[in-house]
Amino acid sequence: MIITEYDAIQIRFGELWLKGENRGMFIEALYRNVSNAIRGVKHGMLAKERDSFMINLDKESELNKLLTTLSFLPGISWFSPVVIAKPSVDDIIRKANLFGEEAKGAVRVEAKRSYKGHRFTSTQLIGRMIKAAQSGKLKLDLDKYACNVLYINVEKGKTTLHLNKMIGIGGLPVGTSGRCIVLLSGGIDSPVAAFYAMKRGLRPIYLHFHTFPDNKTAMRSKIPMIIRMLSVHSNGAKIYYVPAHLFQAVVMKVPSKYELVLYKRFMYRVAEKIAESEGAIAIVTGESVGQVASQTIENMLASQEGIKPLILRPLTGFDKQEIIAKARELGTYNLSIEEYRDVCSIKIKRPATRTNAALISRLYRSCKLGAAEAKSLEASLSTHCQ
Ligand code: ATP
Ligand code: MG
Fold first, then answer.
1. Which end of the chain has fewer CB atoms at under 10 Å, N or C?
2. Domain contains 3
3. What atom in ligand 1 is closest to the CA of residue 192?
């Protein structure tokens, strides 16, 4: 099929149906997200229908770019370029023939009438299509396991036809679950955690602690490049850069085996302050239970003592290979493995694996990390990434 023969792109939302009374709010949010995401791509009108959205296509429309953009948006269960026919058997057959070339082989037909008032049933339609296939371009496959499926949906005023479905990310539209502060390092894991937070409807505000002499240098590092890769899912994001040298200066006073847990406590406390000012009530990290010596549940508990926002660790059930595979898919992997001086590149040989909240609180007070926290926040800088 040549691209100009498509009339629209149909977008379907899956899990949104489960939301009962709030369904309208979820659909509105997805509509806004789609409309913002496709703003820079040529397309016709975006229209809301009963259980889907339609992006109308005209001669100028950039079909492939539109499809790529939609593949990044949480909340979409599937989407597909569609051809629109009249709700009449003859027109449906005529339009179905357009798919003959594109299918590169036989197709199974799945016909559905969401409007039952027409004078033909789905079975009668398929019967007529089988007859027509003997002479037309479209070859039919009656095997129910056939991999190419031509979907036909007969509505009241029109019929949509599409070959197969492009599977979307699913989940919930970004923003519908509120905001979260994503602790983003220069490593592999946290960008993947950010993706899963977005998939559950959270709008990310990134927070990165850096070891550069100033924020401007951090803004020219790979960090904004990683965030740009992730921003295709949220249509831009806000980033906070916070210098870590004040933390590094005071933490020298405590035994180095506690440094990582103190660092986490410090990051959470700064994140908590930013969360307050941003109206966020969750913090997201890339930790996974037991992945490294410092990520024991005892250490996690000790580091989060007294922190009000909910701390989400979406990668808890993942092993490193799964995280790497997802990072490759998201396109962040190559940036993540580029050399980078992260705060914890001060690799501690034997970090404490079983700390507790009382001990960490005592150490925190003894080296006056609270004061370093306030000063670090004062020295922070925030920007937007599109
Ligand atoms: P990652 O690959 O995401 O760096 P990791 O396996 O290296 O994770 P840690 O270095 O212990 O593990 O970091 C655990 C989590 O702490 C990170 O996933 C991230 O959420 C947060 N974190 C670590 N370093 C930073 C940083 N410099 N700025 C912001 N958050 C950080
Ligand atoms: Mg790391």
1. C
2. no
3. 3
